[in-house]
Design goal:
It is a single chain. This protein is of the alpha/beta class. It folds into four domains: 3-244, no CATH class; 275-423, Roll (ph1033 like fold), CATH 3.10.590; 440-620, 3-Layer(aba) Sandwich (Rossmann fold); 627-718, no CATH class. A hairpin with a 6-residue loop joins strand 13 (576-577) and strand 14 (584-585). The protein starts with 8 loop residues before the first helix and ends with a helix.
Length: 720
């Protein structure tokens, strides 16, 4: 953000507004120039009329062409075209921070032909003209004229406080205050405006009358001009509201993340690409509108902003209250919850029509948004870069639901992706994503391991390329493997990390490739490691990490096949012909393999020697004595927890010295992680002891019941 040119849009907007006023009685010419804007820019014209047969337009909608959620590059393209077509001499602005913008799906100030009144567009022109006149000379008569047309405009269906006031702010930011949700919050709730000022302001109504709007404007203008206020005008107020709201939102996000229990999954705290099947309205009736607007939307707008609900159950309750108490709304609540909370920027959307046809594909480009001013039920929205539109036969029968996460159905996703790959004449670039930075210090703060151990671990993996983390139950091998990958990459990029779990039935066909049954007989399917290697091969400048959980549970000779040789450090890049194809295959140099092995699992055979010599082995030990765990324990401030950990350290000494067990059976610290002062209580501690630790002791000392009894008693006593 460049604060020096934060308001460089003002002069351009003022000049353009003056130029636009000349077309009040030449609107046919204006329509042609609007069309020319999109011809010059090479951009698709948004939906401004039914079937985009544009015959009339108001000045605020023209301003809305470049004051909606757009990439700055596209905004500048439109403004550059406007400067040329309308002979605007002021330099095209390049900074738009804090500038209020419309939602793309509600970017016209009028309804389409057949739904709007005959005078609707005329009245918007009168508001525009009277507002410019009032800004030039704020007389009582001119204010009354603005007020008259303000009330007419704001009460039109589809308009409201935010749209009308931001439109006036665009054309004269010194005269009119923008009352979008951000400014409204800043003025009334943030605490940044003195309480004595706020108490004298009228309450905000759904469609505020002009009398109250001007009362707010005059009160705040007086405050801004006073010596007690550091801000001097509406522009600076809006800019400060933008900065402060961004700060508050970041703080709230950080608090939410800190309060959320850490989940031990691959995508626990970072975004990963998911795939969705989506129906844009019944029979895809909204598809054309959504495609042209660059959005996707779902219904249930009557229950309000989905961010206000803390659970699916809360959504169901509201749906029952709003619609029909007899219905369960289980599927509806699940879909709305996923749309608002689980869908992420970068996710892939496949658009279906009925159960047998696909009509589009796109990439999600925004977080969830609620458009309270939209006139229909589709108030829950996200912006989407629609990459494809057409008709494709759906492979099989599509699900009936409006929105379904299909990520886990890998074969299904592969078939859908193949449909659109076949239709593409050129590669469609995915939305570039930024990932959180992740350093060695981040690793050490999350994984209870001494720094010198981390240095050894990372160094060995760099040299060997393949490593197996071995250790007792609960030492956090899986968690450490993921964080090790992140720390070596420097970012939490889960797209460069893949995890599989070996088991007795896992095969070469799952891992590399093999023939699988299909509707037409058998087809050659590529396995997880093959696909991951090809992905890494394309991106040779970045490291990729393939994580194998329970590596010693599979038949390793069978799974790896001819890759025994290819995974060796000095054999990376060497090609061999694969078993099921004529293809030459190699393991890229930028792939690191991390395996995990539970040393306490007595049912497993020794690792194949041929594989053993290709991996380094690193023991992950319980982290009770590490600095990180000590800090974590102190943060809990719980005496019973401290006693339980002391008991665990004594127990591990006994296990370590037991001839039938040894160090490999010591119980890890992970059983005691992810607690907070607010969540730790007697019930939680008792649950760990009774349902996790004691069953493990019964397995360890199945032939020594006295030891089990004694140590069970010790553990229980620690938390009494």
């Amino acid at each position: 953000m460049n604060e020096q040119n934060q308001f460089d849009w003002v002069d351009f907007y003022k000049e353009f507004a003056s130029k636009l006023l000349d077309y009040k009685d030449r609107r046919d010419e204006l329509v042609e120039k609007v069309k020319a804007i999109y011809t010059m820019t090479g951009m698709n014209m948004p939906t401004l009329e039914k079937d985009n047969n544009l015959i009339d337009i108001d000045p605020f909608t023209v301003f809305g062409l470049f004051n909606k959620k757009l990439k700055d590059d596209n905004r500048i393209k439109i403004l550059t075209a406007i400067a040329k077509l309308f002979d605007v001499k002021t330099a095209v602005p390049t900074s738009f921070d804090s500038l209020p913008v419309l939602n793309p799906q509600n970017a016209t100030f009028y309804y389409f032909i057949g739904e709007r009144g005959e005078s609707d567009i005329d009245e918007l022109w009168e508001l525009f003209a009277s507002a410019l006149a009032y800004a030039q000379e704020p007389t009582t008569d001119r204010r009354e004229k603005v007020a008259h047309y303000f009330d007419l405009a704001i009460n039109k269906k589809g308009n409201g406080n935010s749209k009308i006031t931001m439109a006036l702010y665009w054309i004269s930011p010194n005269s009119f205050l923008n009352l979008d949700s951000r400014n409204e919050w800043y003025i009334y709730e943030s605490g940044k405006v003195p309480s004595d000022i706020v108490s004298g302001l009228p309450e905000i109504e759904a469609k505020i009358p002009s009398s109250k709007y001007f009362q707010i404007v005059e009160s705040l203008r007086s405050y801004l001009q006073s010596s007690e206020c550091e801000l001097k005008d509406f522009k600076e107020l809006s800019f400060d509201a933008w900065k402060y709201s961004e700060q508050v939102n970041q703080e709230k996000a950080a608090e939410k993340k800190a309060a959320t229990k850490v989940s031990d999954t691959l995508a626990d705290d970072v975004d990963t690409v998911h795939y969705w099947i989506y129906a844009p309205g019944e029979g895809s009736c909204m598809w054309d509108e959504f495609y042209n607007a660059g959005i996707m939307a779902i219904g249930w707008g009557e229950i309000g902003d989905l961010r206000e609900f803390d659970s699916k159950d809360a959504m169901k309750v509201k749906m029952k209250e709003t619609f029909d108490k007899k219905l369960s709304y289980k599927n509806a609540a699940h879909a709305t919850w996923q749309f608002a909370n689980e869908m992420k920027v970068g996710d892939i959307i496949f658009v279906k029509k009925g159960m047998h046809q696909l009509v589009g594909r796109g990439v999600v480009t925004s977080d969830y948004e609620f458009d309270g001013e939209r006139f229909d039920e589709y108030k829950n929205t996200r912006q989407v870069n629609w990459t494809h539109k057409g008709e494709w036969p759906h492979p099989g029968q599509a699900v009936m639901k409006t929105l379904t996460d299909i990520t886990s159905y890998t074969d299904y996703v592969e078939k859908l992706n193949a449909l659109f790959e076949d239709e593409s004449e050129e590669d469609v670039e995915e939305v570039e994503k930024s990932y959180p930075v992740y350093t060695k210090n981040d690793f050490l703060s999350e994984v209870f391991m001494p720094e010198e151990e981390y240095d050894k671990l990372a160094g060995i993996l760099r040299i060997k390329k393949n490593i197996i983390l071995q250790g007792a139950p609960g030492v956090g091998k899986t968690f450490a493997a993921k964080r090790l990958a992140f720390s070596m990459m420097g970012v939490k990029d889960v797209e460069r990390v893949m995890m599989v779990q070996f088991h007795q039935s896992y095969s070469y066909e799952d891992f590399i490739m093999g023939f699988r049954p299909s509707t037409d007989g058998f087809e050659l399917k590529r396995g997880a490691f093959y696909n991951f290697c090809k992905k890494a091969e394309i991106d040779g400048d970045n490291d990729y990490f393939f994580i194998i959980d329970e590596i010693n549970r599979g038949n390793l000779s069978k799974i790896f096949g001819e890759l025994f040789m290819l995974i060796e450090n000095d054999k990376r890049g060497v090609s061999l012909q694969l078993l099921y194809s004529d293809e030459k295959f190699s393991v890229p140099k930028n792939i690191y393999i991390i395996g995990m092995m539970n040393t306490a699992d007595r049912s497993l055979a020794m690792l194949d020697y041929a594989l053993r010599r290709r991996f380094a082995f690193f023991e992950i030990k319980p982290g009770f004595t590490t600095d990180g765990f000590r800090e974590y324990r102190m943060s809990l401030e719980n005496e019973k927890f401290d006693k339980l950990i002391a008991c665990m350290e004594s127990l591990n000494n006994v296990i370590s010295n037991d001839e039938s067990l040894g160090d490999g059976f010591c119980i890890g610290h992970s059983y005691f992680c992810n607690l907070s002062p607010d969540t730790i209580d007697d019930q939680v501690l008792s649950g760990i002891v009774e349902y996790e630790l004691i069953p493990l002791l019964k397995e360890y000392w199945f032939d020594e019941p006295t030891k089990v009894k004694d140590w069970s008693s010790n553990l229980r006593s620690a938390i009494k």
